[in-house]
Amino acid sequence: MTITTPTEAEPTTQNGTPVLKATKLVKTYGHVVGLDGVSLELYAGEVLAIIGDNGAGKSTLVKCLTGAEIPDEGTIELDGHPVHFRRPQDARELGIETVYQSLAVSPALDVAANLFLGRELRKPGILGSVFRVLDRKLMRERAAAELSTLGISTLQDVTVPVENLSGGQRQAVAVARAAAFGSKVVVLDEPTAALGVRESNQVLELITTLRSRGVPVILISHNMPHVFQVADRIHIQRLGKRAATITPKSHSMTDAVAIMTGASVG
Ligand SMILES: Nc1ncnc2c1ncn2[C@@H]1O[C@H](COP(=O)(O)OP(=O)(O)O)[C@@H](O)[C@H]1O
Ligand SMILES: [Mg+2]
Fold it and tell me: Where would I find the ABC transporter domain in this sequence (predicted)?
């Protein structure tokens, strides 16, 4: 095998200030080092993939970026302004939506209610403001419209409880929720891991739809063909550190795996 020396993709080739920028993040769990000084830049209109072996720190990295974990050290900037997320709600309020690896949908609720979970629409006037009555009809209309905008055709009926859906359809609900509300950044941790070929392709299409809407996406995936199909740049995590940032043009899948496993030095 040819060992190539990976080069960091030049951040200066990207336009302007990163939408999301992390500098030297450190996160430890007791004696375990989850992140060991990791930096990351996400630019407008790009899909940034994060790859790496199990335990390399991928999930910890996105949890720090999305308020699910608080880093011990390091800084995070959104549009050039420092942010300090204490909980996921802080990041959501600033337009960062996440689909975590452990799927978070409420099985007993229908598709529309899941899409608006935590952001329920209420009836106008005193019914909504005082009695907190939900406007189910409006949520169903908006949910159906959003799913059709996103080109999600597998969820025809938004009144079906999510527990009656297939794994792929549930994942589509979670991704659609992120896509619907992620006005700044959408983060997907292994979104296609449990999906079949057709469902995976729908998620990949959704990612490119988001990019074309101008919303940058962070995609964690083990699936090299998926990563090379949709990513503009690829951040490679290894042993809690960023080993390299490459592009599908500058490097092959074999190169990427070599950097991931340490066969080639980043
Ligand atoms: N809540 C936690 N408690 C203890 N160790 C953790 C916790 N979360 C992650 N880790 C450890 O941090 C390291 C990075 O984990 P993670 O970010 O989940 O890796 P990846 O997503 O790349 O598989 C691993 O060694 C993992 O065991
Ligand atoms: Mg993970």
Answer: 20-264
